[in-house]
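ok so i was messing around last nite and threw this chain in just to see what happens. nothing serious, just curious
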Amino acid sequence: MKARTRYVCQKCSAISSRWQGKCHNCGEWDSFLEELIQDSKTIALKAKQSSSGIATTLGSVELSDTLRIPTGIGEFDRVLGGGIIPGSLVLVGGDPGVGKSTLMLQMCEHLVPEKTLYITGEESLQQIRLRAARLQGIPSELQVMAETDIESIAGAIKALKPSVAIIDSIQTARSESIDSTAGSITQVRECTALLMQIAKKTGTAIFIIGHVTKEGSLAGPKILEHTVDTVLQFEGEKTYSYRILRAIKNRFGSTNEIGIFDMVEQGLKEVPNPSEIFLSQRSDLESGTAIVATIEGTRPLLIEVQALVTPSGYSNPQRTATGFDYRRLQMIIAVLEKRLGINFREVDIFVNIAGGITLNDPAVDLAVAAALVSSLKDNPLEKDMIIMGEIGLTGEVRPISSIEQRLAEIQKLGFTKVVLPKANLSKLSRSFDHLTMIPAERIALALAEIVL
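result:
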């Protein structure tokens, strides 16, 4: 009987009975690859031959003595939710050269009591040894393996029974039973499913490193992110040495936590107090800069917001935002024009979040507005002032979350004056004696107090 085939788009997983030059679903060119269709009778026969599942009560399930394995890297443990869960499958994604493999090797340094297996499909064992020598501290007892065949990888994990296994990367792994190239949607999906089964059966925590597309999303089928227990995104601009580890999905912890690292010659170094780092290059006498206290997960951060407003030489003035949502910037500009009567129609506007970090906290709104007006008027703000608050469309300053955590961080770093929403001021449960608090109810009144 002739084997049946179908064509699957490697971009969006759309299926076609024949090859197409352009995907009918996502519009991507030259993205269809041929794959075999497994016979439904074969699937039914396998299901019939498999033993029936046996249910058990929740109370009879035994818990491991070690619920989490600490990685020895505080920032990494914070993002994971306290450490590695045995039997979990963790996907680590990021741009090429951002430091994914370096982070995994440094994790192995602190997992010395635990048996660790590092499997590479992109480098030779000699290259791994050279990189380990550069990083220093990587234990010589670390088990390493250069392999791309997923069946051989599965056999090694079952035989060695490590506490933690690292696959670098999932795009290089392939199964001989699947007639497609490594990195295709089918290969990535099936290899990940097999690794998930091994992790649950053996109790080995498996980390798989994944590539990202040119748009910045994780390469491979979307089902890859649904299959794994945790998805970590390693971010960082190539022009900055700082790297941010962010949890996109975490079945065993919060998805709001971030870990901050500094890439140095000896590898990745933890940044225990990122606020001081982000503010270290700040100039006191320049217009267009404001400091905001933001929250990333449970961690308060003080970040510098920079704005440049300059006369435009174009019929359509430029609006550029780096590290800040462009649509939110447009909203803030519209509110300033409507409620304060400030004309931004003939100027170019550039907004930048210093340090290469991206902020989605609505509490940044008021700081962005203050920086814009400061640059337009060429009037510097007070150097020891923190500005925070969400701006509504009617010009009101709305309350923000975690206000006491923000104020504690502000006071710890020596700032003396805070502009905050009036609604938050009345709900404080403790006093901050060293801070002068300026309540803001309307954006017009707040900016009149700050910069106008």
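not much to say yet. The radius of gyration is 26 Å.
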